[in-house]
UniProtKB/TrEMBL annotation:
Transmembrane segments: none
Source organism phylogeny: Archaea, Methanobacteriati, Methanobacteriota, Stenosarchaea group, Halobacteria
Name by which UniProt lists this protein: Cupin 2 conserved barrel domain protein
Superkingdom per UniProt: Archaea
Originating organism: Natrinema limicola JCM 13563
Cupin type-2 domain sequence ranges: 30-86
Amino acid sequence: MPEITSIGALESTPHAEVFDVDAPRTVRLQLEADQRMPKHRHPESNVVLYVLDGTLELTLGNDSYELEQGDAVRFDGDQDISPHALTASAALLVFAPKTES
């Protein structure tokens, strides 16, 4: 049976766990305008970030990308990551465990 959650009903900030099960970990990130998450890594994951609302500047390693509502980006979590809200923003992140190839 599927697990269904309303993203809009999640209230924790800046991170809200979407599902109780942690694989793959799914989080709603909500940032106020000009709020920035410090550089960090998710070395065991491939990450998908989908912008639900607002505009984010996403720094990956030494490069930055401006993302708007509706944009999706997929990246390796084993690099410095720092999202910065250019406007009040919400994004959905999925942390998919890496598998051996």
